[in-house]
Amino acid sequence: MSTNKFDITEDQRDCLQELMNIAYGSATAAISEILDSFATLNIPNIKIIKAEEIKVYLAEQIKVSHPQIVATQLINGKLSGENVFVLDEQSAINMTKVFNEEDEVNDDDVSDVILEITNILSSAATSKLAQLLSTEVSFTSPSIQVIDNIDDFENDFLDDYDQVIIISTQLKFNDFDIQGEMLILTKDESIAWMKNALDVVLEEY
């Protein structure tokens, strides 16, 4: 029996994974249309960890060995948290070249495109998840940072929270050598709300 109020049951996890398949599928379709390229998406991984362990988790998942672009965007509403989009520097450059239809791009171009892509991914994926859970969300403007080591990852968002539910997947565009990690971080009170919302979905189906 669970001893942690933030733990989710196997049925809730399966339900959330299926909803995230739909939500991330919407995001992939939106980006694929813009880049005019087929994308592959891994089965979403769902994990609940202590907020203080987030850097350890990211280090294991992303395996930073060269500069990474990290774009973050806060989610407001009953489903509150943060979207995180991480991709290596070369993938970011490749994505910018495709997005801008130019062979040469500079750092400002890369930042602008990754922020725009983050907006699109957030809108498509998180808004779809919210819709499936019968709620609405809004977003702050995204921000971006370049890190050489996972210890460089700065996130004040997590300081006041105990538990984080991480929903992650890997996005790949083989035609353009582009791959990145997409994560939704959902915290404390939203985890409790999400468990109830998932139970409602399970009852309906």
Summarize this structure as a short list of keywords or feature phrases.
single chain; Chemotaxis protein chec; 8 strands; alpha+beta
Describe the global form.
globular
Poorly predicted spans: none
From the 3D coordinates, which CATH architecture would you assign? 3-Layer(aba) Sandwich
Biggest sheet architecture: 8 strands, antiparallel
Helix percentage range: 40-55%
Q: Overall mean pLDDT score? A: 86
CATH topology: Chemotaxis protein chec
- What Rg is obtained from the alpha carbons, in whole angstroms? 17 Å
Strand percent estimate: 25-35%
CATH level-four homologous superfamily name: CheC-like
Structural class: alpha+beta
Give me the number of helical elements. 5
H-E string: HEEHEEHHEEEEH
Number of strands: 8
**End-to-end gap:** 24 Å
CATH secondary-structure class: Alpha Beta
Provide the domain count.
Answer: 1
Describe the protein in words.
Helices cover 44% and strands 27% of the residues. With 205 residues, it is an alpha+beta fold. The chain has a single domain (10-204), classed as Chemotaxis protein chec (3-Layer(aba) Sandwich), CATH 3.40.1550.10. Strands 1, 2, 3, 4, 5, 6, 7 and 8 form an eight-stranded antiparallel beta sheet that branches. The protein is globular and about 50 Å long.
